[in-house]
């Protein structure tokens, strides 16, 4: 389980959590009997093959999905994050930008929906894009961007909200090595600056090796890779 930091409450806690989906007369269990927690200083890579439940687990942690058994709670937040950009930021695996909005509008929108004034949200969006060297793309629509540019703008959208918990689902899966490295640089640096927790699901060993703690999923079950933790601590 993740390392406890003082007496701070967990950002998210899962106890005996399962998630099953019905498909006609059959049911598929994506996550089964998972117990884990994430705290503020954690840097966690969730690894495992496709279909092992990594994405489902992150969606449960984000409050985007509901467990069919067990309990997911957010002790540090006092309740579900309810899509608050100030609490939880999610970087999705596939394209997630709104096609009709340009880059700056895509980055600003979650903050506006969260109650930030439009002018302030736009200012923070510009700062987030500049941080990722994306200022030149502020007025570009998603279909005018490369896959790498679009994913970095999606990362900027999350970081602009200054969340306390960053959940990234295969954020580099569609990127080349250079763009993947750049995205991870920004995620790790931002988590450090915001004192936020960072949880990244990935197939890529080079991505997993950037993070201190390794969780491994197999068939919906979660194992804690103490050997990977020890190796990370030696780097």
From TrEMBL:
Among Pfam families, the record links this protein to:
ABC_tran
Residues of the ABC transporter domain: 12-235
Q: So which domain of life are we looking at? A: Bacteria
Instruction: Report the GO molecular function annotations.
Output: ATP binding
Keyword annotations = ATP-binding, Nucleotide-binding
InterPro entries under this entry?
AAA+_ATPase, ABC_transporter-like_ATP-bd, ABC_transporter-like_CS, ABC_transpr_LolD-like, P-loop_NTPase
Database matches in PROSITE patterns:
ABC_TRANSPORTER_1, ABC_TRANSPORTER_2
Gene3D superfamilies, alphabetized: P-loop containing nucleotide triphosphate hydrolases
Keyword ATP-binding assigned to the entry: answer is yes
User: What protein name is recorded for this chain?
Assistant: ATP-binding cassette domain-containing protein
Supply the source organism's classification. Answer: Bacteria, Bacillati, Actinomycetota, Actinomycetes, Mycobacteriales
